[in-house]
Amino acid sequence: MNYNESLSFDKEICFHLAEDRERHLGSVVPPIYQNNVFLYKTHESISQAENDLAKHYIYSRGANPTVEIAERKLAALERGEACRCFSSGMAAISSILLSSLKSGDHVLCVSNIYFSTIDFLKYMDKFGVEHSIIYSTSPDDIEKEIRANTRVIYIESPTDMNFRIIDLRAVAKLAKAMNIRTIIDNSWATPLYQKPLTMGMDVVVHSASKYLGGHSDLLGGAVIASKEIIDQVFSKELIMMGAVMGPHEASLLIRGLRTLPFRMKEHQENALKIASFLESHPAVEKVNYPGLPSHPDYQLSKEQMTGYTGLMSFQLKQGTYEAVRDVINKMKLFKIGVSWGSFESLIWSPNLGNNAVELKKQHINPGLIRIAVGLEDAEDLIGDLDYALN
Ligand SMILES: *Cc1c(COP(=O)(O)O)cnc(C)c1O
């Protein structure tokens, strides 16, 4: 399938797939099944349903028809067999990691990973699960870091903060040969621009709080994988820990997906203009954005992604806390805040003024500023950056 065919298929998924409109009186948008309990006519019928929780609506800490629409769309967008949604990205990530690991196992993290994911892996120490991080992105170096007890290779591509690209096909291949599960956080690229399961990754996780929702009004997460992996995480971690997505959040997510193809196109166009502007600015040392031809992984990014989104970072020549603070405080259109993936442009830096040692350990430049390019006018955003940088 080429990119255009893939995009038209993805639009069809966002607009129409899994809506079952005839079941819902012709409603063009699905109703919100806000109920937590579903009724049965007889004891026999509920008993039968309870033997297969995944296929029956019984109690909403399990399958819910509204949530299921979002799940079927996300599975289709990622070209995966199945999906389950969670109450947040971290609920999805912690659940699939718990599902994939047992005491004595090791997780290999490749390069920079979302900080709460690393915090969760540190927390897992007390259950006898160890992890290590390799900062090189080369598949040969990754292979050398695999231990006898490595059960999971965990990836973000582009990587957190530094936006390097990992060769997904190469990592999937070496992991498969050693029977190691590969998990990738695909929140940055979204399934529109990167489909890791088609390149051999085993599991995709998402924070739906970012681009998938797209309006800063919901928290959610998703895991997409084979039916076998999803059934496992559904019947154990999802139902037992109970971090389910609520039906109202699911309806917001379904609404967000309607405009995903259009929002991503605009994020990409704005971000490319802004990355080029930053690259030419004398106060800027370096721009970390894989859509720039000068990016060290530009070629690889072209081979495994069909587009770029709006999150990037840049490094000030003057890499001090004070310089970072002054630039951020001068911004007007870029609002100060964590998170990203929504209509509004945001600015943030991991340099908090008291964490220089930690930043160095994580290979993060002290002059690094992260921007989430939103849907405002690109010229206005450039004007804002220009003013703050001068
Ligand atoms: C925000 C984020 C998460 C966590 O998602 P929540 O919905 O906030 O729990 C995970 N991964 C990445 C890359 C993120 O940016």
UniProtKB/TrEMBL annotation:
Known EC number: 4.4.1.2
Gene Ontology cellular component terms for the protein in this record: cytoplasm
Residues with N6-(pyridoxal phosphate)lysine modification: 210
Example GO biological process: transsulfuration
The name this protein goes by in its record: homocysteine desulfhydrase
Pfam families assigned to the protein according to its UniProt record, in alphabetical order: Cys_Met_Meta_PP (PF01053)
Broad class of enzyme this protein falls into: lyase
Keyword Iron recorded: no
Signal peptide: none
GO molecular function: homocysteine desulfhydrase activity; methionine gamma-lyase activity; pyridoxal phosphate binding; transaminase activity
Catalysed conversion reaction: L-methionine + H2O = methanethiol + 2-oxobutanoate + NH4(+); L-homocysteine + H2O = 2-oxobutanoate + hydrogen sulfide + NH4(+) + H(+)
InterPro entries found in the cross-reference section: Cys/Met-Metab_PyrdxlP-dep_enz (IPR000277), PyrdxlP-dep_Trfase (IPR015424), PyrdxlP-dep_Trfase_major (IPR015421), PyrdxlP-dep_Trfase_small (IPR015422)
Gene3D superfamilies: Aspartate Aminotransferase, domain 1, Type I PLP-dependent aspartate aminotransferase-like (Major domain)
Organism per entry: Peribacillus saganii
